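Letters spell out the chain; backbone shape is given numerically. Both lines appear below:
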Amino acid sequence: MIGRIAGTIIHRAMDHVLIDVRGVGYIVHVSPRTAQSLPRVGEACALYTDLLVREDLLQLFGFPTLLEKEWHRLLTSVQGIGAKASLAILGTLGAEGVGRAIALGDWNAIRSAPGVGPKLAQRVVMELKDKAPTIMALGGALTVDAAPADEVIEAPKAQRPPAPPKANFTAEALSALTNLGYAPSEAASAIAEAGANPEATDTAKLIRTALRLLAPKD
């Protein structure tokens, strides 16, 4: 299994990138969002990868963070969602957007991805709503690159941008709410909704906002 590629970009396109690793070129399929965020040709690049193996086909799919890779693996577990559909969803919404849409049951957001119809979008939300909190809770830890610097080929300065701090907020807030006794799916939904509030700029504020949403309504 190839879990990570680090090397020099020798070709870029909107749906794939060719990375040279010590003289071997690897074609890595990516979403348009990821493609736009990558360095220029001739610069160093690192992507987490998922290898699709079939009888007559081997394809690598690349992701800027482990969080996005885990969402890809979860999305492709849904019947009807192949690797291309998963990349379309992640390319449209991003990893955090996918988590928010699934936690809130917002299948219209999933449907906004090219090639994803309403029935398939509803299936994604229905099948993954109870699984989403697990990935959301791991978000902060999953985006940390634990590899030693000497394992990175070429200059490490040009690697992917750091993960948004909100990934840590989400994981910490979800852990806090579940420790308070809220069901993971209920807590994830409240945190996803609270995350849209511009005032929820740290863990404590995100928790307070989510708790207000969870409070019994008169």
